[in-house]
């Protein structure tokens, strides 16, 4: 690429996107040190704050209403060399519009600023590969490996034909777009596309606005409010985790590889699913970690405010309806989020990009302590709505509630 590649970032005011923007702006790597990034932003006040913080020579805010403005998004993408979609992974139409816009960029190869094909870096999540232990069949021993990205892609495609899921559909729309070519293609008219399929993201974000993750803060708030934790199913659902700073560093490494090596180390298309993993945890242990932190700090048990909480640590086995009170009422998201098995083995980022997450088990445990402090201070009002752009697009399973079972106390 030229010395002035054009980059478009969505999600700059969010948890992941804000941290990615901060890491891009603060990187000392020569290839990204002076990058100017266009950012999609809702609201002039936020746009002004981004400019005040990073400078008008580093960020160029573009005001938009929402992700349904696909014509605007496609037009913007056509004017950029790299699109980083760190906004909503649950909006297939806007993700497809980004790739479509980049495909128009390739048609002007002789006049644009790029000496290599344009790239799309898409953000997705591991619920794409989760089982359905409550309403369907459980696969507790299944583990998917990004070293065989095509197998993961084929698995997702088959799953989406069986049951459409917007986040998975968005990922497939990006990687399977007709304009996208695979990693070994010499087709100059093709678009490169990679999806970073994140597990549970934890840690304090570094952006200007949304700095909280989802899973641990949501469970911590539940524990503090009710005095006990919850588990959906037998608690053996499993998820990997990664610190948001390490995740953001992976995006920076991807951008650097595009600029410095013409993306020689990035898989694309059906091979382009990357799992950024640093550790693994059972779902019941997330509730346990929240309880341990709350009891150790003396936040629990409590009484005297009209609410008497359990005197000992309890994890309540709940039904789908109760779990869905933490997922904007959506039963599918509750099931995959709190009971699903989605073990993912990630080696591509390490072996091909030299990515080495620095926040491991110790940081994961410390996060419970940190999140408790934020929840008690009233600083964690985040909900699942913040990562789902269009709730009505999600499948709803009201018919599966009957017979799932009620709540059961589990003494731990």
From TrEMBL:
Comp. bias regions, Polar residues: 107-117
Saccharopine dehydrogenase NADP binding domain sequence ranges: 7-106
Lineage top rank: taxon: Eukaryota
Sequence segments annotated as region (Disordered): 107-127
Pfam families referenced in this protein's UniProt entry, alphabetically: Sacchrp_dh_NADP
UniProt name for this protein: Saccharopine dehydrogenase NADP binding domain-containing protein
């Amino acid at each position: 690429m030229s010395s002035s590649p054009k980059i478009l970032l969505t999600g700059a005011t969010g948890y992941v996107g804000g941290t990615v923007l901060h890491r891009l702006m603060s990187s000392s790597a020569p290839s990204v040190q002076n990058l100017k990034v266009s950012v999609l932003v809702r609201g002039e006040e936020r746009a002004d704050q981004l400019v005040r913080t990073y400078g008008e020579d580093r960020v160029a805010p573009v005001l938009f209403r929402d992700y349904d403005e696909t014509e605007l998004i496609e037009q913007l993408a056509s004017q950029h060399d790299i699109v980083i979609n760190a906004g909503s992974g649950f909006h297939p139409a806007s993700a497809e519009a980004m790739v479509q816009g980049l495909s128009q960029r390739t048609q002007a190869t002789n006049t644009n600023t790029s000496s290599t094909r344009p790239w799309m870096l898409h953000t997705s999540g591991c619920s794409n590969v989760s089982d359905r232990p409550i309403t369907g069949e459980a696969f507790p021993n299944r583990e998917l490996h990004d070293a065989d990205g095509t197998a993961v892609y084929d698995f997702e495609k088959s799953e989406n034909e069986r049951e459409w899921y917007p986040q998975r559909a968005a990922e497939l729309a990006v990687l399977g777009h007709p304009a996208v070519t695979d990693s070994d293609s010499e087709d100059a008219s093709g678009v490169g596309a990679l999806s970073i399929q994140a597990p549970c993201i934890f840690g304090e974000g570094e952006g200007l606005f949304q700095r909280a993750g989802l899973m641990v803060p949501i469970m911590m708030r539940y524990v503090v409010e009710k005095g006990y934790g919850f588990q959906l199913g037998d608690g053996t659902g499993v998820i990997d985790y990664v610190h948001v700073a390490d995740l953001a560093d992976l995006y920076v490494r991807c951008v650097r590889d595009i600029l410095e090596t013409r993306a020689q180390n990035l898989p694309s298309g059906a091979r382009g699913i990357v799992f950024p993993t640093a550790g693994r945890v059972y779902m019941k242990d997330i509730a346990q970690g929240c309880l341990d932190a709350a009891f150790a700090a003396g936040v629990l048990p409590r009484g005297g405010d009209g609410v008497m909480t359990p005197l000992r640590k309890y994890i309540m086995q709940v039904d789908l309806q109760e779990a869905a009170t933490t997922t904007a009422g959506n039963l599918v998201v509750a099931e995959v989020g709190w009971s699903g098995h989605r073990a993912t083995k990630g080696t591509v980022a390490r072996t091909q990009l030299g990515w080495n997450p620095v926040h491991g088990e110790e940081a994961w445990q410390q996060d419970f302590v940190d999140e408790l402090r934020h929840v008690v201070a009233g600083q964690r009002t985040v909900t699942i709505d913040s990562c789902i752009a269009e709730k009505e697009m999600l499948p709803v399973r009201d018919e599966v509630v009957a017979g799932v079972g009620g709540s059961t106390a589990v003494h731990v």
